[in-house]
Amino acid sequence: MSNNSSSLCLTDRQMMLAVNDVERLLIGKIVPFLLLFGVSGNILNLTVLLAPKVRTRSNKLLAALALADIVFLIFMLPHSLAHYHVFAFSHWFRYLYLTNKIHLTAIINWASAAAIWFVLVICVERLIGIKYPLSSRKNKTFLSARFLIPFVVIVTGILTSFHHFSYFCATKYFCDGTQLHAMCVRTDSPRWFRNQTNPNSELVKAIARWGPHVNAILVVLLPVLLVILSNIMLICTLRNRQQFLIPTQSSVKWENGMSGTQMRTEHKVTMTVTAIVTCFTLTQAPSAFVAIIAAYYQFEDEVLVVVSSVFTTMVVLGKTLNFVLFCLSSTTFRQRLLRRGKGRLSTRSQSQLTASSGLMDYSSSEHRKWSRLASGSSTAPSEVLPLRRLARGATVV
């Protein structure tokens, strides 16, 4: 079925992988620049957050969030490239893209779900850390990043796995095998290609039917609501803690066992987390609620494409802004980033200096050696051979 051929030739408009002007503008023109900046920024985030001396639980969770965002942005790139004529009409790109589009979308949803739950875990971890620091230390094993990160990745992977087989896409060649196109149908659809009976089992149909509902509740609605609630509580806690952040009281121990200096450090970390979570809520929540509505209400295709394009761009923008938020809200992050940048430059310049110095030393030693030979200076008998011995084929060691 997937390799059927037809002599009918499609028009350029029919061959385009995106025919909506809004989608072409947002996903095709704006999103690629956001992807480039977002991947670069999150890589810089990882270099700072995973530095050996600052691998705290909060930083490890933030690094996991940055890694999830990188995966999301990288797998979003083929969707953006599909809006360009050079890729849309390339046979190899069309084949790879159309046959793997469902799996690309599944990985994007997995990374997005993991990012949502990472944000929730980070927000709750900060809330517990700043309100109940002693309790946080007692439950260090349960709240450790070594346990939380794999747990979130595995659970979200299971909850979003239905995307891999919720649709079946059939490819077909047109215009005597020179044009490749595809059409997708839901796995649980009662109608199938060529009016055939749906060949999928009842289990696959049930997963494809109920998967979006479970995803809407456990992956989208519940974590987003909890993130909003946790962020509000975090902001209120920050406002209530302002009275403790007095510089002259840095050596005083408070009821929770923390000194003023420790509390100010926790406050700064929490401020950064609050900025990231607030940005996440503003850019991700609209897309989440639209996904929930789309699962229960059938939009017109044109309207759904426009709405999805707008909110997808907002999601990409939110994942891109994490680096900017780190730089704006954390003085420590800026200092560490500059320090690492200067360290890389100094290391590179030092290696170049060492290489050039070694070359100069080698040249100087060779020059001194040949100077001694030319001047007849005293050397060991084994270092210089008479010319007649060289003529007989002797070698110089």
TrEMBL record:
<feature type="transmembrane region" description="Helical">
    <location>
        <begin position="303"/>
        <end position="328"/>
    </location>
</feature>
<feature type="transmembrane region" description="Helical">
    <location>
        <begin position="30"/>
        <end position="50"/>
    </location>
</feature>
<keyword id="KW-0472">Membrane</keyword>
<protein>
    <recommendedName>
        <fullName>G-protein coupled receptors family 1 profile domain-containing protein</fullName>
    </recommendedName>
</protein>
<keyword id="KW-1133">Transmembrane helix</keyword>
<feature type="domain" description="G-protein coupled receptors family 1 profile">
    <location>
        <begin position="41"/>
        <end position="326"/>
    </location>
</feature>
<dbReference type="InterPro" id="IPR017452">
    <property type="entry name" value="GPCR_Rhodpsn_7TM"/>
</dbReference>
<feature type="transmembrane region" description="Helical">
    <location>
        <begin position="62"/>
        <end position="82"/>
    </location>
</feature>
<feature type="transmembrane region" description="Helical">
    <location>
        <begin position="273"/>
        <end position="297"/>
    </location>
</feature>
<keyword id="KW-0812">Transmembrane</keyword>
<dbReference type="Pfam" id="PF00001">
    <property type="entry name" value="7tm_1"/>
</dbReference>
<dbReference type="InterPro" id="IPR000276">
    <property type="entry name" value="GPCR_Rhodpsn"/>
</dbReference>
<feature type="transmembrane region" description="Helical">
    <location>
        <begin position="145"/>
        <end position="165"/>
    </location>
</feature>
<feature type="transmembrane region" description="Helical">
    <location>
        <begin position="102"/>
        <end position="124"/>
    </location>
</feature>
<dbReference type="GO" id="GO:0004930">
    <property type="term" value="F:G protein-coupled receptor activity"/>
</dbReference>
<dbReference type="GO" id="GO:0016020">
    <property type="term" value="C:membrane"/>
</dbReference>
<feature type="transmembrane region" description="Helical">
    <location>
        <begin position="216"/>
        <end position="238"/>
    </location>
</feature>
